[in-house]
Every structure is written in structure tokens, then in C-alpha cells.
Amino acid sequence: MLVRKIEELSDMLIRYDYTANLSRGNWAWEFARRNPDLRDDAFAVLPQLETGTACCDIRLLKLREQDHTAEAWGLLYFPDPDQSALSTDVFWSDQTFPRKIAVHVRDRGPGEIDEIFEKGTRLCRIVHLTDAAGREHFLVKGAHCSIQIR
After folding, report:
1. pLDDT in tens, 16-61
2. Sign of dihedral through CA atoms 44, 48, 53, 58?
3. pTM above 0.90?
4. Could you tell me if 94 and 82 are in contact, meaning their C-beta atoms sit under 8 angstroms apart?
5. Which of 14, 21, 31, 18 is nearest to 90 (CA)?
């Protein structure tokens, strides 16, 4: 009996091993996605997203309309609550997660090399979301980490 309990505990620890280095936002998603009320709201209406792909396999998302129910949960839209923070794209609202990095972007000059872009697209998965108000948000996801930029 004791051996079986130890094996069950070991299996549970392995299942949650991915949480060891999660960011605050990713931890928040791990808790939120287990909330039955959030799950009900998330599955009630599918997000109105246009999708596409840009250069370097950057995933493009565009919200057609504001999702007030998701915003009540602090999200821009509902990602799939069956997916972990590492396997889905969670975009938090500015009010919920004000510590996002804000950037100003400009076009590169002729022949100018953007080392951050070059390394970022090589090492990370990038998702670009345009919200219903036209604001741009990015998720830059690497091995066991992510950062949200606006």
C-alpha cells in the first residue's frame, strides 16, 4: 500500500515538473485554468480570432471583437483551459499584468541587422496578437519561459 502511494506521488510530481520555472503569469494561468467558472466561461464561446503566419514562423492572431467575459478574468481572450501555460498562448490584460515590457518599434534601415530579432526568432516561438482596439501584443516563448510585450 505504501509503495503504491509513493508511486502515485512520484507520478504526480513528474506530471507537474514543468511548473518548476514558471513565470508569475504562467503560474496565474495554471491556477486560473483549473477554476470551474473560468472553464465554463471559456468553453461557452470560442474566441473570434483571425490567424496567420508571418516570416520566421511568427504566429499572427487578430481579435475581431473585444471579449468582455475573458477581460473579466484578466485575459484578452480565452485560450484553451485544457492546455498548460507552456502549450498555449496566454495574453493577460494590461490591468491584470501591468509589468509587461512596452517597446517602440521602428523599421530597420537598409542593411541594418537586428540582433534581437535574429536571435529571438531562432531561439523562441513568437506569437503576435492584435487586439480589438488595434494594440499589438507579443508572446516570446523559449524553453520553460515566456515574456509578454506590448
Report:
1. 666 666 777 888 899 999 999 999 999 998 888 899 999 889 999 9
2. negative
3. no
4. no
5. 31
Q: CA-CA distance, 130 to 144, in Å (whole number)?
A: 24
CA distances from 38 to 16, 34, 51, 65, 77 (A): 21, 8, 24, 19, 12
Which among 97, 100, 99 is positioned nearest to 138, based on CA atoms?
100
- For residue 97, the one-letter residue type is F
Residues 6+ apart with CB under 8 A from 128: 54, 58, 59, 60, 61, 136, 137, 138
Instruction: Answer whether 119's CB lies under 8 Å from 71's CB.
Output: no
Report domain extents, the chain: 21-105+115-149
Amino acid identity, position 49? L
